[in-house]
Amino acid sequence: MQWTINGQVREAEVDFRTSLLDLLREQFQLSGTKKGCNQGACGACTVLVDGERINACLALAVQYQGREITTVEGLAEHGKLHPVQAAFVEHDGFQCGYCTPGQLCSAVGMIGELERDLPSAVTADLAAGQIEWQRDELRERMSGNLCRCGAYNGIADAIAAVLAEELGEEIAR
Amino acid sequence: MSALDTGRSGDTQPAGVALAGDYWRPEGRPDPLGEKGRSGIGAPLSRVDGADKVTGGARFAGEFRFDGMLYAALVCSTIANGRIVGIDTRDAESLDGVALVMTHQNAPRLNTPPVFLRAPNGAAGDDHPIMQTDRVHWNGQPVALVLAETQEQADAAAESIRVDYAAEPAMTDFAIAKTQARQPDNVLGGPAEIRVGDADSALAAAAYRVDATYTTPRHNHNAIEPHALTLAWVNEAEGEGETLRIHDASQCVDLAVASLAEVFGIDISRIHITSPFVGGGFGGKTLWQHQILAAAAAKLAGRPVRLALSREGVYRLVGGRACTEQRVALGADDRGRLQALIHSGVAAMTRHNNLPEPFFQATKCLYAADHIRLSIDVADMHMLANTFMRAPGESVGTFALESALDELADQLGMDPLELRARNEPERDPTSGLAFSSRQLLEAARAGAERFGWSERSATPAGRHDGEWQIGMGCATATYPYMRMPGAAASITLTPDGATVGIAAHEMGMGTATVQTQVAAARLGLPVEKIAFRYGDSRLAGSVLAGGSQQTAAIGGAVIAAQRALVAELLSLVDEHSPLSGLSPDEIECRDEGIGAIGDGSRFESYRQILASAGRSELSAEANAAESQELGNWSMHSFGTIFCEAGVSAVTGEVRVRRLLGSFDCGRILNAKTAASQFRGGMIMGLGMALMEETLFDARSGRVMNPSLADYHVPVQMDVPEIEVMWTDIPDPHTPMGSHGVGEIGITGVGAAVANAVYNACGKRVRDLPITLDRLL
Q1: In sequence order, which ranges of A18-99 are alpha helices (DSSP H)?
Q2: Staple B407 to which of B154, B210, B384, B557, CB 3.0 to 4.6 Å?
């Protein structure tokens, strides 16, 4: 069986019961992706598949053959932190660091959703077509990633800083 | 430049720092690092392990590997009290990949572990025998363990095991258990009842009275990293016998070694635990059955083992905070001065642990009442032993006390902050000791100004915003300063810098970052030249990451190690050295070396001293001074929490709109990591106020919501931007002038939210969590 993970083709023979999360952690020793609940409730296992965020604990490994999987280990390029990673460090968007890989992958996927103007539960006008990038939009969209240390303010600040950089202006509160 | 480099930049060349000495004595000299303006101290340095944590490079306990490692799965009991009368493991044993099924019938003989707070080496949650008999003591107790080649095989095999029980009557209903409550031997080593004067008579005679009952439910820590470990019995050296090598998620590596040594009947030198990263602890990551079972199974199978508890497994095996029912009775005169203060009640506990949830802790020191009576009773239940969870006692105790203060202020028609100010004590009201440092009124004043407290409606239900009724509430936060015995540190100097080693922990508090800053400032080195090593039982000392005491404990140990190091350095210099003839007390560390205090001409760099002596490195290790300060003063952190809440008139939903914490925790060592600690505590307090509850089935004694889908913790959208601020006034009697900041944030929040809810809609909620059904 074959998977493309962080741009590399990886092979393994696994049990059909193996989740994508356990494939990454136990078969390929990509333990950056975390197991917080193994039932889709905490978001610690969030990875990107073809650019979209999913909970790797709820995904069977065999289903994801041939897809482009990106984990936290694949966010930095050429030894340079991804802007979201650097912003998390600067804004103290974590304490213990266990939910962090999931937060990071979720943030990267979420920014893609904003760029594609996909609405969320707090989008006032679903028909508007264009999503206003403001703090509640990102907070709502990041609410599937639990952080028990309570670094939520730092996480929101970090993502807002990255969005502001992209937008060229501050993100509305 | 990487993020790590950016974080480490800035002014890192402090002025000379004399050696700290007798800060713990009444006539002692404060630690010079507590002085204002010390370069590097307080700076918002980004985490030194930040790059590791954002790249997936930080390895947690369940991510290490041993060759030939097996995966474990557990079977847990479904009755709360009784006996196992049969276990059918035949199906499990026949499944592919299964290497071992362990039950009480084949488990190796194990001694009962020493219990936390009962034995000096105790790290264990309870004193039950571990898989040694057919007895079941709680609903969720492990009764079988499977080892298999893969996790999937182990899980499937565990599912196939059939257990028959003979159930016996069990006390699983708190409403009944509390009617048979008893007074425990002690509460955190102190008395379970404290009396000053005659509070009951004073209450009866008081002009104004509040007498109410408050309840708080069970809580679970819910660190996002479930408990996990990877271990092996290894041969370190020929002829020495096996060593138990454990990668654990632990907030007490040394205590765990001591306890495991007793369980397995081996010397402590034969156990080695490392725990470089811990994915959140909050009091839960001590020693529970899973570590012992994994080690026993590895012994039996002759193979290394990984055991990662499922989220449900954490609820079954690792205790949480006990439920409480508290009475607070306040009697006051017409000017609001407290004449009687009664705080009593019952907490659930078991006969097998020693933590009566100490809800009266904060009440001991907060208010100057003429007559005080405090007591805690425990209701024995058949349940998993309860344990420490962030600010045990203060978190739920301040909910009751600070709600009652708000009720009294309401009755008196007085601003609740003013009521608190009128009862500010000059000395500790129960111990009689002077406070080492207490700037609560200053913190409250500054916080009120920043928050805009003056805009609070004096009467409930005075502000509206559409369907939302808006209110403000405040509450006092407090948590003790502690510095537990056992801390020691080593410092190793090389021409390239210094390595500080201590068996302490990093669970996200910022320990490694802050202690790097502190060591740099103390030794006169830039932070880039400091390596702080921790999370290894073979490092110096024994430090518990608990009780908000780690910063002070490490600080005290490093002070002692620095003095020993300077003495060693002075012993190396010859008579031609400018340092010749100086004693450690005449020395200050500066500019990457040591010199005479106030004499720029008498100086040698560490590099010069080592080179002249022909040494490539120099090490010193010392034990921290005894924490005599705790007997000399009443030592606490303080703060005031301000909350603005909205209550929907339509649904009863509560949303916290603004939250501010103004704290008095001595000198703040890193503005960035301390702010995160305060906020993190406050968010857990917000969870306690509005949503957190471990549901315990009174019929079966089983936790009904062992899942992050059903036990609700605050999510991003629940949390407003939280402002935190601090007095930054050093405590002259602590290392660095600082207090711990990890737990105070959760205290006071429950009451601040409840008081804001009352102010918003006029409904007083005395039972947590404040879910919308209580407000409809």
Answers
A1: 20-22, 83-90
A2: B210
| pLDDT tens per residue across span B614-627 | 999 999 999 999 99
Which residues of chain B make contact with A46, given a CB cutoff of 8 A? none
Q: How many CB pairs under 8 A join A and B?
A: 193
Q: Determine whether domain B61-169+225-317 maps to CATH 3.30.460.40.
A: no
Contacts of A31 in chain B (CB under 8 A): 56, 59-60, 63
A148:B676 CB<8 A: no
Cβ-defined contact of B508 to A94 (cutoff 8 Å): yes
Band (pLDDT 50/70/90 cuts) for residue B3 is very low
B684-696 pLDDT tens trace = 999 999 999 999 9
Quick one: CATH architecture of A2-74? Roll (3.10)
Q: Are strands B530-533 and B497-501 parallel, antiparallel or unpaired?
A: parallel
The pLDDT of residue A126: 87
Answer yes or no: is pLDDT of B199 > 90. Answer: yes
Fold exhibited by the domain A83-167 = DNA polymerase; domain 1 (1.10.150)
For residue B120, the one-letter residue type is P
Q: Could you tell me if B60 lies within 8 Å of chain A, comparing CB atoms? A: yes
- Contact yes or no for B668/B730 (Cβ under 8 A): no
Active site residue B586: no
A:82-121 residues touching chain B, CB 8 A cutoff? 85-86, 88-90, 92, 94-101, 104
* Closest by CA position to B56, among listed A170, A109, A45, A137: A45
- Which residue among A90, A136, A152 places its CB closest to the CB of B46? A90
What CA–CA distance (Å, rounded) separates B52 from B461?
Answer: 49
Note whether B231 and B717 are within 8 A (CB): no
pLDDT digits (tens, 9 = 90+) for B103-133: 999 999 999 999 998 888 899 999 999 999 9
ipTM reported for the complex, 2 dp:
0.98
The reported pLDDT for the residue numbered B21 is: 84
Average pLDDT of span B4-31: 71
Domain spans of chain B? 16-21+483-626, 61-169+225-317, 393-400+414-482+635-776
